[in-house]
Amino acid sequence: MFLLKREDILVLCHSNSEIIADHITSLNEHITGLNKHIAGLNEHTAGLNEHIADLNKHVEGLESELNDAKEEIRNLKALLNQNSQNSNKPPSTDSFVKRETKNDEKKSDRLPGGQKGHPGSTLKAFDSPHEIVNHCLCNCKYCGHGLSQTEVKCYEKRQVVDIPVLNYIVIEHRSEIKECPYCGLINKANFPDNITKPVQYGPRAFSVAVYLREFQLIPYKRISRAFKDLFGLTMSPATVKSAENKCFHNIKGVTDQIKKRLIKKDVIHCDETGMRVDGHNDWCHVASTDKLTCYFHHRSRGSEAMNDEILPEYRGIVVHDFWSSYFKYPMCKHAMCNAHLRRELKGVHENFKQDWAQEMSEFLAESKKYIDEIRKLGDEIKVEEVEALKERYDRTIMKGIMENPPPLMPESRKGKRGRPKQSKAKNLLDRFIKFKEEIMRFATDLKVPFENNQAERDLRMIRVQQKISGTFRTPQGADAFCRNRGYISTIMKNMMSVIDSLLAAIKGDPPIPD
Q1: Which alpha helices (DSSP H) does 404-452 contain, by range?
Q2: 360 burial type by CB count under 10 A (0-12 exposed, 13-18 middle, 19+ buried)
Q3: CA–CA separation, 380 and 294 (whole Å)
Q4: How far is CA 270 from the centre of its chain?
Q5: Cα(445)–Cα(433) distance, rounded to whole angstroms?
Q6: What secondary structure, in 3-state letters, does 167-206 show?
Q7: Alpha-carbon torsion 192, 195, 199, 203, what sign?
Q8: Residue 341 contacts residue 396 (beta carbons within 8 Å)
Q9: Which residue of 141, 310, 394, 457 has the fewest C-beta atoms within 10 A of its own C-beta?
């Protein structure tokens, strides 16, 4: 294939037009071939473009998976780093690996040990000892002269406080049987209502059994062993259980009074913990103040259990954690446990390196210290002071929003239903945004404490009981323990004798704290 110049074409047109026609035909065929080749190249290019588009989608998917994997690795590392100091995990779950302790509180200038003015306690001498033992001095320790007839000048006293030998007493009740001389029928005197068996334990023995079981949390068989060792009595585990049930039924009226008083309180504390009952994971709920405690057992953790107790009728302020079921009771106000929040903030700062979390934790700690000083002085917090605290709260939230921008929606998630997964830091930030009023209530209402320690302390013995004595075999056993333990806790908070109160309860006249 060659190209002709214009002059050659003009000469050929005049001399030999066939050559020109053949040449044009050849050019047309060549152009057609080129067009086919271009079409093939275009088709190949389109295929390459589709392949590139598929590769781009694959790369985008891989990037999305990589980001998800990075996020999962970050969350797993955060999970491994969780302990009782930076999360809601209990101290019992902490491993024995030595961790670097990071105390957020400033070190005090006080020396270790008891501080000046601390009352302390020690064993004091008694004015009227039960027994006096005189130790005679017969000879002088220096010259050996006899002192038997010498008058005693004074005594140096030392006392030994001990427990006498524990023993049981047997009281025999005799019912007179007489024959009536008039009608000749046999008559028998009535026994007291509480004497129903030929041989039975008395109320004090029952009260000691309940004391050991519900207060000291000793298992049934070990209580039987303790009675054998201490008193020489063989009290079976079934008898201990009978004493527990008797106390349970006799204090029902007191428990109802405790519930009514809790409903009238301005502030109560609520929490829940797991209970293993009859092979199931049940829950023990608590509602309490510094003077009253009410436990109740239920299969459910949420509102199904709460509907049966105090919250539906309560109109005060409930201090609790972020368990969502509590917010189903809008007739009462809510206050958050900021001790929980500070631990979560610490975890976010350590694991996700977000500064807003540390600033918020410091803000809560400083606010608590400031509010505590106002309480000690008996003052009221001013409106402008509250507004200043809220402004600092909002500034910290804005910093958190800047550190947690909305994530870009990957192509793989477009068109899918549901909310995209957020990081733990973003979830915590959202809670601070949504529940600002509840978190700051300790500063706006001085009756509200900073944390929910009251309920957590009350629940601690429930967990200790299961560690010592194991699980509950029946729901009735769990109900009995919760009611009896709540009564004992209330008695202790009101500085009353536990053993005397249990004795009165066994007799059917349990005392009600004022």
Answers
A1: 424-434, 436-439, 441-444
A2: buried
A3: 31
A4: 10
A5: 20
A6: CCCCCCCCCCEEECCCCCCEEECCCCCCCCCCCCCCHHHH
A7: negative
A8: no
A9: 141
Who contacts 502 (Cβ-Cβ below 8 Å, separation ≥6)?
Answer: 207, 210, 211, 247, 488
- For β-strands 177-179 and 186-188, DSSP reports them as antiparallel
Which tokens in the block code for residue 439? 């978190």
Structure confidence by residue, pLDDT tens digits, 176-187: 999 999 999 999
- Answer whether residue 416 shows pLDDT above 70: no
Paired tokens of 53 = 């588009």
The 3-state secondary structure of 106-130, one letter per residue: CCCCCCCCCCCCCCCCCCCCCCCCC
Query: What's the length of the chain?
Result: 514
Reported as a pLDDT band with limits 50, 70 and 90, residue 79 is confident
499 vs 212: CA distance, rounded Å: 10
Tokens 């009290």 sit on residue:
235
pLDDT over 70 (residue 330): yes
- Take residue 427 and report the two structure tokens written for it: 């979830």
Say whether 68 sits in a helix, a strand or coil. Answer: helix
Per the confidence metrics, is the pTM higher than 0.90? no
User: How far from the centroid of its chain's Cα atoms is residue 250's Cα?
Assistant: 31
From the CB of residue 255, how many other CB atoms can be counted at a distance below 10 Å? 20
Q: Please state the separation of Cα 301 from the chain's center in Å.
A: 13
- SS3 call for 443: helix
Q: Which of 102, 19, 1 is nearest to 342 (CA)?
A: 102
DSSP per-residue codes, 266-292: SEEEEEEEEEEETTEEEEEEEEE-SS-
Q: Rounded CA gap, 345 and 361, in Å?
A: 6
Looking at residue 431, what is its pLDDT?
A: 95
Residues 476, 404: contact at Cβ < 8 Å? no
